[in-house]
Amino acid sequence: MSPRPSDRRSFLKTSVATAAAVSVPYIFTSQDARADEQKSSESNDRPLVGCIGTGSRWNAVGPNAMQLGDVVAVCDVDANHANGAKKKVTDIQSKKGVQRDVDVYEDYQKILDRNDIEIVTIVTTDHWHSKIAIEAMKAGKDVYCEKPLTLTIDEGKKICQVAKETGRVFQVGTQQRSEMGLKFLQAIALIQAGRIGDVQHVAVAIGGSPTSNSIPVVDVPSGLNWEKWLGQAPLVDYRWAKEGKQTKTRCHYEFRWWYEYSGGKLTDWGAHHVDIAQWGIGQNGDGQGASSIEPIYAKHPVEFKDGMPLQDDRYNCATNFHVKATFDNGVVMDIKDSHQDELGFNNGIMFTGTKGRFLVNRGKIVGAPIDELKDNPLPENAIAEVYGGKDPARSNAHMANFFECVKTRKLPISDVFTHHRALTTCHLSNIAIRLNRSLKWDPKSEQILGDDQANAMQSREARKGYEVTV
After folding, report:
1. How confident is the model at residue 342 (pLDDT cuts 50, 70, 90)?
2. Would you state the pLDDT for residue 148?
3. What's the CA angle centered on 428, arms 262 and 186, to 5 degrees?
4. Who is most buried in 13, 99, 100, 202, counting CB within 10 A?
C-alpha cells in the first residue's frame, strides 16, 4: 500500500525532525578494544557474537547467547533499544568477568563487515529476517534467527538456497523443538513409537490476531529511524495510540498484526505449532508439504480486494480463521484460531491416529496414550533419538544446540529447511484466506497450480534499495 498524498506529506513532516537525529548512523567503537577482541578470540574458544535487533524478544535471546559466547556488538534502528542492549550486555558479561567494550551500530552491515564476529543473532521484525539472514550467511556468519523466519514463501526458498551454498549453521528460534518441558519432543517420540497408530488428523489451535481502532499518525519517536525500520515494506506514516492499557502501533511488537510486516497468528504461532504438527506427520522434508489448502472461514478487521487490505490505519490480520490443509499422505490438518469440539482448546496440537489421540501444548500433554505410559513407558533413549542423539534435558537447550552445531557443523534441531516447509503451509493459508479461495500446491516444484494471482503472492515487491538478493 502506498500512502495517500496527504499521508506522504505527513510522513515527510514527521520524519524531518527524526532525520536530524538518525541521518548519521550511531557507531561507537574502540580501536584498542577491537585489537583486544582479536587477541581474546585467538585464546578463547567462546565465539564472538553480534546481535542484530535488540527489542523485547532479544531480552531472552541475547542473555541465552551470552551463556555460550561473548557479545561484542549490538545493532538496532532504534537507538533506545541499542543503547539499552549495550548496557545489558556490559552488565551481564562483567558479572562473568568478561571485560569488553560493546560496539553500538544502527546499520547491521557494520556487524557483518567485522571479521572477528563469527555468530549473529537476528531478532528484528519479521519482514527484515530474510534479507539480514541471507547477507549474514554470505558474509560467513553462522546465524540464530527468531521465528517466523520469513514473510513470504519466496524468501524461504532463497534462504534454503543460500544455506546450502554457504554451508553456514542456521538455527531458527522455534524453542518448542528443544524446551517447554520436553512435551513436544515427547509427542514426536510417541508418534514415532506407534503409540497412536497411523496419524490421520491433526487439529492445530493458534489463536486469532487482535483488532484496533483507527490508529492516528503521530511524530516518529526520538531515536527511531522509521524509514530504515520499514526497510523492504512500503513507505508509510508512523502510527501510535493508547487504547485503554494497550499500545496500538505499526511498530514495535504490534507489527505482528500487519500483513506488511508479518502474517498474524498464522505465522506468529503457526511457526511453532504447525512446525511440530508437520514434524509429527512426517511432512517437513524436502518435497513434502500440503497439496491443497482450503479456507473454511476467515474474518478480517478490514476489507480486502485482490488479497490486499483497503485500509492502512488499523490492524489487518485475520482475527478468526479455519484452514483445512490436506497432505499427500492422506493426513488432514485443521488450523484454527481455536477448536470448539468436545475437547475445545485455544492453543495446542491434537494428534489423532488409528489407535488414539492426545493433546500437547506448552502447559500439558494429555490423553489416553499419555496415561498408558505409566505401565508402558517409552524406551529410555526415545526422546534423545528424536533430538538427534543429544540430551535436551538442560537449561538453555535450544541455544546450546546451536552453539554445539557451530562447532560440529552439523544440522541443528530447528534447521531452515524443515522450518521453511512448515512456514510454507502457514503462508499458503494466509494467501488462501486473503483471496478467499482454495489453492492447489505442488510441494516438489513449490508452485501454486492454476492460479497466477495466488502464485504471485509467494513474493512481494521490495522498496528500492532494500531488495532481497541471493
Report:
1. low
2. 98
3. 85
4. 202
